[in-house]
Amino acid sequence: MKKIFSALLLSLLSFATSFSQKVNVGDLWYSLDNENMTAEVKMSFNYWNQENENYSYIQGDVVIPSTITYDDASYTVTGIGGSAFCNAKGIKSVSLPSTIKYIDFLAFEKCGLKTVYIPSSVDSIATTAFYHCDSLGNVYIENLKSWCEIVFFPSYVEPDADPMFQFYNPLQYASNLYVDGVKTTDLYFPDSIKSIKNNAFVNFRGLHSISIASEKMQIGKNAFYGCRNLESVIFPEHISKISDKAFFGCTSLATVDIPIVDGEYEMELFSGCSNLRDVKIPGEVSKLGVGMFQNCSNLEEIVLPCSLTLIGSRSFMGCSSLKSITFPDRLQTIGALAFSGCVSLENMYHGDGDFDTFSLTDSSSSSSV
Prior knowledge:
By secondary structure, the chain is mainly beta. 6% of the residues lie in helices and 29% in strands.
């Protein structure tokens, strides 16, 4: 055990040593990795020991260099370190070079940032990197595909978690997204884009419509969560995957044609889409996911496909305007609380006749038809 502990300690010390040298080059501070000859942008040297704000001497625009030279050695700048620009109120825009790979936790926390330029080289952004960047209005990216491939880590955080660990994708604050210099409110995902990572557009209020071309598309968890101005979503007839809460809380979405997916629908895909009125479910669907249309309070009528055998728990919970629903003959199971809170539900039909053999309850167990 002692040998294992010593080896672990040595490993940690070795890692720390490689980034232990903190130096000032130009206006910025960096940690140097002398083994890999890379540099990470850090907070100004005495920030934690003084009452003044981080990088108080910088006002306006910051351009991060791709390389720095220190003691006649060249280092490639590959990352923005944790809290690097925390509370830097005077910084209004930051341009990152094409060498940057990651933006770490709280990197721009409570920064005065209004505009950020993120290159396609960035492959990971901490979910708290832009925590409380309340002035951020503009996000510039080089291309849509590279943005869709960014990993926002931790990759999945519950929306009701501690605010410190919620999403805070920069688009959460920005009202404007520029793709290759062009302001974009309507996103087209061509066939070459086959995945949209978790949290990619979470809470982005500048998004009005999306159109997806590839049938191999995989949409990650919370990908369009809280896009409250999203009005139109166009899917191909078939899609590989739509993950949990992908369109949760898209309150302007009024109509949607659900695509066929490989496997089953995941949790709460369109939950909280309070303006959703017209839903078309394809004929091949056999199961509705848990909470799929939960709290879609303007949904008045739903026609379920003949192939449907299971309605997941909470599927229509809180659909307070739902008045009529037709159940197919093949339906076998209705999950717990599937229609709880459907206070306007008047007509329930099953096959060719009235559906009067099932009573809606708040039971915690599923019921069979």
